[in-house]
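ERR on first pass: missing label on line 2. Operator R.T. fixed the label and resubmitted. Corrected input:
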Amino acid sequence: GENVEQHPSTLSVQEGDSAVIKCTYSDSASNYFPWYKQELGKRPQLIIDIRSNVGEKKDQRIAVTLNKTAKHFSLHITETQPEDSAVYFCAASPLNNDMRFGAGTRLTVKP
Amino acid sequence: NAGVTQTPKFQVLKTGQSMTLQCAQDMNHEYMSWYRQDPGMGLRLIHYSVGAGITDQGEVPNGYNVSRSTTEDFPLRLLSAAPSQTSVYFCASRIAGGANTGELFFGEGSRLTVL
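pass 2 clean. output:
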């Protein structure tokens, strides 16, 4: 099955700085790559996703890039704010199959 | 539209007891799954189903059973609880197949403690 690795496990930035989280995956059949944000005690919620026919996608301060050849994808958050502090998970899956998650990155944005 | 509903939210069991975590969704999603979340280990897939009558194992299926008799419901059964099954459990669903397949919708989670 798919194996997703995520780095770093913890990330601390100053408010206004950028944050980058990177993931690699193993299964070349995977073609859907979402990112989830989980606040303390809450359920994971989708913040952005990308499909394999697209190299980059942006939504305001959040962007995701995908390199299918190298099997890695990254989350970029610009102009970070304290409310961006949370645990972020990457995931990978073939569209019609199960979804596997990375181990998570705890992002702390210091005011 | 309630989305994905899990019950109970909290449960304490003794070693060897059995229980069922309930999951229901009202979005007519074909795909349903169960994950467990442990500190530092992310979300690990236990079992999943792509439709009524079809189930399959994920990464960590041992000690858990599932069934899918209807599109709406996907219960997770712990046959003989062990302390290693202390975790937060999430049920999730999504559309299976087609151009709209993608986002996984999660329930609120069930926190299980096995003493």
